[in-house]
UniProtKB/TrEMBL annotation:
Protein name listed in UniProt: Nucleotidase
Family: Belongs to the 5'(3')-deoxyribonucleotidase family.
GO molecular function: 5'-nucleotidase activity
Enzyme Commission designation: 3.1.3.-
Length: 196
């Protein structure tokens, strides 16, 4: 008998399942810079690289496929997600555009990363998708998303620690440094839900 799925976990892709530093070498190459990941104190990389939002959008439009193909896995995310797959509902909700679905699914397949759904919403506003899928918690690296999701849905959000998301956090947002840390926190949440 198949075990009942305990948690529906909303999971961002870029900077959460992929390494948050993976965009920096590509942008350095394109814009002739020598910035380090640690220099990226702002989520908006147009400001970090001193280019316009339009220039960044054009760059992402032209380089998105390469970025999404070459991005390495963030730590041991692949192993942990494989362990969760039979117990939890894994719903990836990403700002990537729908036209990048094939390259996204190829990347998931290459790293053997399991999923139940992949929802490419094409915008940083993931609230409607998170509501539609009924997520119980969310894994994210963008501070603004974490704040919106935790406040609107009253769910815990695990925010992966990066140079660009430093801020004081409300009680429902938990800063995490590694996927092992997330794994432990999910086990605690799981126990709390199953013992009710």
């Amino acid at each position: 008998m198949k075990p009942e799925k305990v948690l529906t976990i909303g999971i961002d892709i870029d900077g959460t399942v992929t390494s948050p530093s993976s965009i920096v070498p590509l942008m350095n190459e394109s814009f002739g810079k020598d910035l380090r990941y640690e220099d990226c104190f702002e989520y908006n990389l147009a400001n970090v690289y001193k280019i316009t939002d339009a220039e960044f959008d054009k760059w992402l439009d032209e380089n998105g496929e390469r970025l999404y193909t070459e991005a390495p896995v963030h730590g041991n995310a692949d192993q942990i997600l494989r362990g969760w797959h039979s117990h939890h509902q894994l719903i990836y909700i990403s700002a990537r555009e729908a036209r990048h679905r094939a390259v996204t699914l190829d990347w998931f397949s290459r790293y053997d990363i399991p999923f139940h759904e992949v929802d490419l919403v094409g915008s940083h506003d993931k609230l409607a998708a998170a509501k539609r899928w009924g997520v119980d918690l969310f894994l994210e690296d963008r501070l603004e998303n974490a704040l919106q999701l935790s406040e609107a849905l009253q769910i815990p959000v695990f925010l992966f620690d990066t140079p660009y998301n430093q801020s004081e956090l409300p009680p429902l947002i938990h800063r995490v440094k590694t996927w092992d840390e997330v794994q432990k926190m999910v086990q605690v949440l799981n126990l709390a839900r199953t013992s009710v």
